[in-house]
Inverse folding.
């Protein structure tokens, strides 16, 4: 396998992993949306606000993923560590917001 193939494979794996995480977050958001529909009126506004925070985190993650997918091979290596840090930060923020629902 050439070095370019290895880089591409690594990037493809990163993209697939990120897509799977986004799918998981989207499923969590859908569950919470169902809770909003069932919530008492006084809790509904609070849950809706937290749901919007989760959606914002998810949208930020999707934007980072698009940047990663569109990066050239040379840019990929430069972006990788920054993407990993940003992705971890987004994931932590998402989990913190989710913990308020448990």
């Amino acid at each position: 396998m050439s070095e370019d193939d290895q880089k591409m494979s690594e990037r493809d794996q990163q993209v697939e992993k990120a897509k799977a995480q986004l799918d998981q977050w989207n499923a969590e958001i859908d569950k919470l949306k169902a809770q909003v529909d069932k919530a008492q009126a006084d809790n509904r506004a609070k849950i809706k606000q937290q749901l919007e925070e989760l959606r914002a985190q998810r949208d930020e993650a999707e934007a980072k993923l698009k940047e990663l997918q569109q990066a050239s091979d040379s840019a990929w290596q430069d972006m990788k560590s920054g993407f990993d840090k940003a992705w971890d930060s987004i994931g932590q923020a998402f989990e913190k917001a989710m913990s308020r629902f448990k």
